[in-house]
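Shipment paperwork, digital attachment
Item: protein structure file
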Amino acid sequence: MADDAEPDTAVRGDGEPDAAVRGDAEADAAVRGHVEAGTAVRGDAGPDADERGGGTARDEIDRGADVYAAAAPRPAGPRPADPDPGRAAPGPGHPGPGDLYDPGAPGDPGDPVPVSGGPGPGRSRGPTAGIAALPLRSQVAAAFALAVVAVVTLVHLGMVFLHVAPSNTMTKQHGRAIDDWIYPEFEQNWKLFAPNPLQQNVSVQVRALVRTPDGISRETGWYDLSALDGEAIEGNLLPSHTQQNELRRAWDYYAGTHDSKNRPVGLRGDLSERYLRRIAVMRLAREHAGGAGAVVERIQVRSSATNVPAPEWSEEKVSDKPVVRELPWWIVPDSDREGGLTEASAR
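Attachment content:
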């Protein structure tokens, strides 16, 4: 029987580690006061603690860590004042001003982090500036005032434009309203637009009296030089200056230095006549007027002016009948013929 009691005593002896964890006050105080003591207890718990789940030892260790963090030394002297009195006091687990940061202290990983240049947690942005800061009724009044100013400005600019522009359909229909708006405060005289804008299609034509190689003189038909220039320009991305302007300026030069009866006015009348004649002869030679070997002896130039038709929405009545102006026959000297005439000498 004595031999059988020894195993029972051994079983009671195996319970000493469990009794040390549950009842030893000194070990319990060591756990609460120092982390190393808690670690030692956890090692002493052995398999018996693992059988009960090990929860008691872990809880004691966590409580010991909290006590250790609370007992950490702090800097002497009063805490610095909070620069922002309106900021909320730090909650549990969050260090306040003057507190040491404890990496083991519990915290909320979802807490917002203040961004540089923006308000931190608990802080509000400054007041909104501009029209947005006004009440709704004031915003509507300000928007309406701006719209009125914009409309009046556009109307004024349109009235000034129509006042200084050449006569057109709008000024003919609403001339009185435009004058009432402009005069007397906004009168304009900028000399900005051409006094006589082109409102006609002018075609310059020429015919010739030629002598054929067999000695017969005959008259050619009319060559529309303006139409020939138009065909050369159409579809040409880089038309020449002569195709666009030479013939038109030569005719304008002649018309400006001669009266309605084709008499020269001023000293440049003869010069403009020779200039137009040379250009006409050069163009006839380019078109082989009269056939091969024919010699141009005389030429006659005329113009046909047709008004530009009014738009469909306009009530303006414009005559579409061409106005023809024929010049007298000019004798062509030998210096103006192809043998002694080039495009540069015609100028």
